[in-house]
Structures are given as structure tokens and as C-alpha cells.
Fold these 2 entries.
Entry 1:
Amino acid sequence: MNQINVLDQLTIDKIAAGEVVERPASIVKELLENAIDANASSIIVEINDGGISYIRIADNGEGISREDVRKAFLRHSTSKIRTEADLNSISSLGFRGEALSSISAVSQVEMVSKPKTQDFAIRYQIHGGVEVDFSETGAPNGTTFEIRQIFYNTPARRKFLKTAMTEAGHISEVISRLALSHPEVSFHFLNNNQTKLHTAGNGNLKDTIYHMYGREIATNLLPVSFDNGRISISGFAGKPEITKGNRSYETFFLNGRYIKNHIISKAIEDAYKDFTMLHRFPFVVLNIEVNKEAVDVNVHPTKMEVRFSNSSEIYDGIYEGISTALHEKELIPVVEPSV
Ligand code: ADP
Ligand code: MG
């Protein structure tokens, strides 16, 4: 029989990193969520080569103090929850304490961070989970991450990366979602030194939609506003004339988190049924708030799936919220051609 080995921490981290870091866009997502959790009001994202060779994310948030820098890169270390009970009421985007350890296990990371209460910054470099530099330096308040050579030490994973263009597309999607769910934060995204998105960060969702999708969409929106005490919905529903042949115009956030959920999609599409042709999907950007106890966000490492304790109530609320928005404007229902 083969001998059983207990794996060392570097190997454990490398294996676990696979769940969190699938591609450059996963790194961008995790680092942006951290910046938002750190109350940044301005975030700059720069990528080269689809993020495969270089990602830089600079925020003006709270920063990490000297004593916490090394800890932040350990697996399951987080400032966002303390006890198991806290899992029932998560208000931050992160909480699993896995991102920094996972990212640094499979790439070369340089971080410079300065909290306002500390008059110097710490530069920390960690390559493949191994510390390379920990030194004092000068920097503005906030945190800047530079990520180089993703998967340089896991060639099997590197093989699965797509072209720079495809990877850049995934990154752009991630940034768009976070910009839409956080209109109070200014996002500046540059791909190969070219600005791709620059949101105002003035807290106005319609402005953010305008920056992202342009005038045609921004001028054809109906406000959605619904609240029955258990579920509240705000945002915009596109007029029926700005539909699309796929679901890429459907964006919704649950308690501030971008998710995919077929119950919510179904409720949205059912509400539009009388107004759109078959196989056309509406434009919506919805912020859905439900009682934190009514939803389990701790289902999957990427946190994109959730579980509801009462999904029919969610369906009904969304259906009603959208229907009300559509009917208020006395839009004329589309008559489906009979085939
Ligand atoms: P999580 O976000 O789940 O807590 P991470 O591994 O993403 O875990 O980050 C670990 C910790 O590092 C965070 O809890 C936070 O305290 C700190 N941190 C990470 N990124 C930033 C940032 N941009 N600004 C301030 N603190 C940060
Ligand atoms: Mg995080």
C-alpha cells in the first residue's frame, strides 16, 4: 500500500487556489471586492495582455496596517468575520479569507498598502506563496496590488487560459458588474493603456448605466421601486424596445452581490412576457435587498450562487416590482405573432 502523506501548506494553498482563481478575471473580482470592502471611493484597474501578464489595482481605501500585512495573505484569515455566528449576517463582499492566499499561491504579487493612521506604507512581495520582500516605503493612503504572471508555477492551469482578448472581456464584465452595484465608487479601467470604462462614482446608477451602455439604453429606462417589508427592489427596467437576443442585459444584485439565479431571471422574464417577443430578453439592473437571514450566500467559493429559504416570495416580489414599473408607463403589450 502507498504511504499516506500530509500535504505541506504551499501545496494545499496551490490546490485550493484553483477554486478561487480560475482566470485573470477571478483575480480582478477578488481584488475589487476587497477594495470596495475597504470603503474605497476610487479604484483604478489596469491590465496588459488580458491580465495574463499584468494586473494592477489601486484603491484609496482603508489600507492594511504593518502588523496585518502578512496575516492578510494567510488562508482563512479575514478582518470581516470573527465567529461562525457572523456567517448568518454577512454584509461585506468577502468573508472567506481565501483570496489573497489563493492569488499569491499561483502568481507573483506585489502589494503596497498604507492606512491613514500609519505614516509609511508597507511593500510586500510574495511569489508562489513565498515571501520575497517586506519593507517600508512611501505611498498615498490605500492599497495597490500588482499581479504578474498568473499560473506561472501551475503550467497545467495556464494552458486553459484563452486569448488575451477573451480574458480581457471577462475582466471587463467583472468590472461592469461591480461598477453597476457600486455607483458610489469611481471605476477607471484601462486595457493596454487605453481607457475602456470610467464611471463618475457620484452615486447615481443612471449615470453609471450611461457610462457603460451609452445613451440609447440610458434614455429608455423605467425606474423600479418596490418594498413589501421583506424584499425591496430598486433599479431600472429597460423599455421593451431595448431587448436583446440573450440574457447579457440582465444584471441583478442580491444584497449588493452580483449573482446568477434562475428564479430571479424567471420572475423578470415572466413580468416582461406581455411586452416582448419570444426569445427576447430585457435590460434590467436591479438591486434586490432581502433579510440577510433569508438567504445563504455561503454556497460556493465564488459566491455567485445563493440559496433562498423562501424562493416563491422572492419570485413574487420581483415579478410585482417589474410589472408595476412596466404598467405604470402604459406601455402597449406586444401581440405575439401566431405561428
Ligand atoms: P476576505 O476578503 O474574505 O476577508 P481576502 O483574502 O480577500 O479575504 O483578504 C484578507 C484580508 O486582507 C481582508 O479581510 C482585509 O482585512 C485585507 N485586505 C485585502 N485587500 C484589502 C484592500 N484592498 N484594502 C484593505 N484591506 C484589504
Ligand atoms: Mg476578499
Note: The two ends are 67 Å apart (CA to CA).
Entry 2:
Amino acid sequence: MKSRAAVALEAGKPLELVEIDVEGPKAGEVLVKMEATSVCHTDAFTLSGADPEGNFPAVLGHEGAGVVQEVGPGVSSVKPGDHVIPLYTAECGQCKFCLSGKTNLCGSVRATQGKGVMPDGTSRFSLDGKKLHHYMGTSTFSEYTVLPEVSLAVVSKEAPMDKICLLGCGVTTGIGAVMNTAKVEPGSTVAVFGMGAIGLAVIQGAVMAKASRIIAIDINPEKFALAKQFGATECVNPKDYADSIQQVIVELTDGGVDYSFECIGNVNVMRSALECCHKGWGESIIIGVAGAGEEIATRPFQLVTGRVWKGSAFGGVKGRTELPGYVDQYMKGKINIDDFITHNMPFEKINEAFDLLHAGESIRTVLHY
Ligand code: NAD
Ligand code: AHE
Ligand code: ZN
């Protein structure tokens, strides 16, 4: 079938709005019609060429919601008409990872997903007869996309897809990192680096966890009004200080915070986030994604003296079992998604959504198919 799509033909170039060919679902696969998608910084990161797993040409996009159109042979857990959120972190329920009870990282489709192909090693997308790569197992920048069955969470039909698409990455990642990865306790002090959707979602999670102080850090002061609205108790711009940001936070908090979260993808800030944690127990969670060749560094003494460095992917959330509950929480007014959506646009304006993100003018732009 034909599908409207925004294709990343090569790194560093705007997406091309074209009509692509989409093959029907094979065994264990599902054809989904996307209703809405948004742009996460990770899409921009991959498009920039900095992603070691970046494949071109490709159909990017991983934050979306849509409706199942057709299922391939052997698919039993979803059916046409189901409302679904694509999962870049699959959940097969049977692999070593899923059975461990220790992680949300599923091993079932991850290797082929990273190569930009379906689990059988081939692609369902082509443009003018030339194959296109899939992306993160989701490729939400095509109106019709094909995913593995294990990469879909079935959610309530009552929920507006142009809102819950944000649960496909940003909102879930931030809240989950607080709840599942850090397990922030009531009364904790928290520092959040980067006030994009991820950092704001961490703030929302920290409020839910009843943190006593939530320090929002960004070099763009325009972000602070929304940070306060989400529940930041203080906002700090590193550019306002001569001292390093870790020194500033340590002084503000009598020795450092209980938890910090890096939501930028900057390895220097990752170091600051670790070093602003309290001696003996402070934990720093890396959420931001850094480019090819980047490495983190600190004095080992920082860890010897009790600080803990952790990372979090999709907030440690198991998508198929837990995401329907996140959607229900949104419907009950317990999770705020609406305030992340600064812009709405027709899908065809997708390159404007990337421009707004790069300019720091948007949190999330929802694109409507
Ligand atoms: P974003 O671009 O909307 O937000 C980044 C924020 O960081 C901006 O407000 C920017 O002003 C701020 N910033 C940049 N440099 C800074 C610095 N030196 N000091 C302080 N603030 C600085 O991005 P986003 O969509 O919120 O994504 C944030 C990061 O999280 C990206 O790296 C993205 O790839 C990553 N991410 C990871 C996961 C995961 O599962 N681990 C999920 C989603 C996104
Ligand atoms: N491909 C990159 C890493 C990209 C990365 O870390 N992705 C995050 C999700 S970002 C969503 O916006 C993640 O979940 N990673 C775990 C995984 O299994 O991909 C690289 O460095 O190669
Ligand atoms: Zn994302």
C-alpha cells in the first residue's frame, strides 16, 4: 500500500515528505495506521548523524499512537481496531530480560531493531523501489507502519491519541525514571538537568513521589515558567554562576541532592549531575542520550564515597503490561500530558517541529495525520 511519510534520506538534511510503499505484515507483525506522532530529541539526535545506530535512508519516529489495521499470521494479542502505542522497548514476556524481573529491556527484537529491519531481517518500507530502514522498531513518521506484535501496547479506546502519543516516550520516560529507576522517596531532594519534555516529566514524577525540593537546571531561562508550573521548587541557570553547577547545587543543598537526573545527553553535564549528589547515598540517573564516541568521566573517588551512577531507558517501564495503566492515569487526571504539548500541526509540517525543538521553542509538537 501507499503511505504518506517523512523520510530521513541522509544525516543532517530535513526530512523528505513523500509517498512510500508499505508491505503488509508478515508472521508476528502488525500494520498500524498512525493517528498522531510527536518529535522527541532522540529523533533529532539520530537525524543529526550522531547516533551509532543511525541507518539511512530511514523512517524515523518513536512517539506515537494509532489503530491496528491488519495482523500477520500468528498474531493473537492485538486485533484490527485496537488502539495502540508503539514501543521502542518491546516486551515479549519470555526472554531472559523479561523473565529476570530486573529490567524492562527486552531482548526479543532488539538486535534487528538496531539494524533498522524487522525481526526476519527485512524491511517493509520502500521508496521508488529502494528499501528504507525502520527505526527503533516503531517508525511513527509514516501514516502506515509495520511493527512486531511485541512492540505494541493496547490501550483504552477512550483516550485521545493526539495526547497519549506522548506516553510512547517522553512523559513515561521521565515519570518512570523517578518511580522505577531511582525510586525517589518522600522528602527527597532532587536536581533535574534539562527542561525539555524528559526533564519536565521527571519533575512531574518527583512531585508524585513527594520530593521536598526539586531543583530545575537549564541554560535557557525561558524554560523555567513551565518547570515551576510542573512543580520545580527552584530554578537555576548555570550561566548565572562563576562556580561549576555541581558546586552551586552542593552549596544550595547542604552537601548535595539525594537524586539527580540528566535529561540532556551532554557528557559534561552527566558528570556535574553525578557530582552534585550527596556523599554516601546520592544517586544520579542518566536519561540523556550522548553521541557516537562520547564517554563519561569522573574521579572514581566520587563512587567510592557512595554516589551511585545509573541509567534509565523508557523509565524502566514494561510497555505492554504497564503503559495501559499510564493511559488510564491520564484519563483520571493523575498524569498531566496536555501541558507538554506546546504546538499542534498537520503531519506535513514535521520539519517545523524539528526546527522548534532545536530552537528551544517547543516542548512537544504533536503532528496530526
Ligand atoms: P529537549 O531538547 O526538549 O530538552 C533538552 C533541554 O536541555 C533543553 O531545555 C535545553 O535548553 C537544555 N540544555 C541543553 N544543554 C544544557 C546544559 N549544558 N545545561 C543545562 N541545560 C541544557 O530534549 P528532550 O526531548 O527532553 O530529550 C532530552 C534527552 O533525553 C535527549 O538526549 C534524548 O535523546 C533523551 N531521551 C532519552 C530517553 C531514554 O529512554 N533514556 C527517552 C527520551 C529521550
Ligand atoms: N542508539 C543509541 C542509543 C539510543 C538510546 O539510548 N536510546 C534510548 C531511548 S531514547 C528514546 O528517546 C534507549 O532506550 N536505549 C535502550 C535501547 O535498548 O535502545 C546508541 O548509542 O547506539
Ligand atoms: Zn524519545
Note: The two ends are 16 Å apart (CA to CA).
